Automatic annotation (TrEMBL):
<dbReference type="InterPro" id="IPR051912">
    <property type="entry name" value="Alkylbase_DNA_Glycosylase/TA"/>
</dbReference>
<keyword id="KW-0234">DNA repair</keyword>
<feature type="domain" description="HhH-GPD">
    <location>
        <begin position="42"/>
        <end position="195"/>
    </location>
</feature>
<dbReference type="GO" id="GO:0006307">
    <property type="term" value="P:DNA alkylation repair"/>
</dbReference>
<dbReference type="GO" id="GO:0043916">
    <property type="term" value="F:DNA-7-methylguanine glycosylase activity"/>
</dbReference>
<dbReference type="GO" id="GO:0032131">
    <property type="term" value="F:alkylated DNA binding"/>
</dbReference>
<comment type="similarity">
    <text>Belongs to the alkylbase DNA glycosidase AlkA family.</text>
</comment>
<dbReference type="GO" id="GO:0006285">
    <property type="term" value="P:base-excision repair, AP site formation"/>
</dbReference>
<dbReference type="InterPro" id="IPR003265">
    <property type="entry name" value="HhH-GPD_domain"/>
</dbReference>
<dbReference type="GO" id="GO:0008725">
    <property type="term" value="F:DNA-3-methyladenine glycosylase activity"/>
</dbReference>
<keyword id="KW-0227">DNA damage</keyword>
<protein>
    <submittedName>
        <fullName>3-methyl-adenine DNA glycosylase II</fullName>
    </submittedName>
</protein>
<dbReference type="Pfam" id="PF00730">
    <property type="entry name" value="HhH-GPD"/>
</dbReference>
<dbReference type="InterPro" id="IPR011257">
    <property type="entry name" value="DNA_glycosylase"/>
</dbReference>
<dbReference type="GO" id="GO:0032993">
    <property type="term" value="C:protein-DNA complex"/>
</dbReference>
Length: 200
């Protein structure tokens, strides 16, 4: 799979430079679907470093194991908020945990759905927008052809790499459509390029 992805992605000469600098793609998927979704909510609209810090404090609330939905609903929303989350995110996490406890959300249903179907179902839930659903597709389900157009860091990286000033969504998609069916891997390389190389 990785070799097939490189054949396609290396046709993009600008992306090829990032691939050569970064090396092998190592996307870390999260085997626990609940954790994958909660991590996506925690990291909404904040920097990578802030997200990692808050995620660690969240885990530390519960000891060594990642909490279950049952663990979370035993806390108050203020206790969840205390580790640096906004009030709204604390509510989202609590409410989603309650849905699981009440058997109103079953992650197994997503396994056989298309990407669009997963996004459609997840965005029915309060606190989950398209970006969060896309992060779940990438890091929870390991889907290979996701391009999160609403990711600011990703779009800024695209602007730098391709010399774009104020690109339209159409212009961005014209570039990334050439990466199909491995847009997730292309996205990962752009993220890495922004973080480690600044495309210099």
């Amino acid at each position: 799979m990785y070799e097939d992805a490189l054949i396609i992605l290396n046709k993009d000469k600008k992306l090829k430079k990032i691939i050569s600098s970064v090396g092998e793609c190592k996307i870390r998927t999260i085997s626990n679907p609940f954790e994958a979704l909660i991590e996506a909510i925690i990291t909404q609209q904040i920097s990578d470093s802030a997200g990692k810090s808050i995620s660690l404090r969240f885990k530390n609330l519960f000891g060594t194991k990642y909490p279950t939905a049952n663990d979370i609903v035993k806390l108050s929303k203020n206790e969840i908020k205390s580790i640096g989350l906004s009030r709204m995110k604390a509510e989202y996490i609590f409410d989603i945990s309650k849905m699981i406890v009440d058997k109103k959300l079953n992650f197994k249903i997503f396994n056989d759905m298309s990407d669009d179907e997963v996004i459609f179902e997840l965005t029915k839930i309060r606190g989950i927008g398209k970006w969060t659903a896309e992060m779940y597709l990438i890091f929870g389900l390991g889907r290979l052809d996701v391009f999160p157009l609403g990711d600011l860091g990703l779009i800024n990286g695209m602007k730098k790499l391709y010399g774009l000033e104020n690109p339209t969504n159409k212009e961005i998609l014209e570039i990334t459509n050439k990466w199909i069916p491995y847009r997730t891997i292309g996205t990962w390389y752009i993220w890495k390029g922004v973080k480690n190389f600044q495309f210099v």
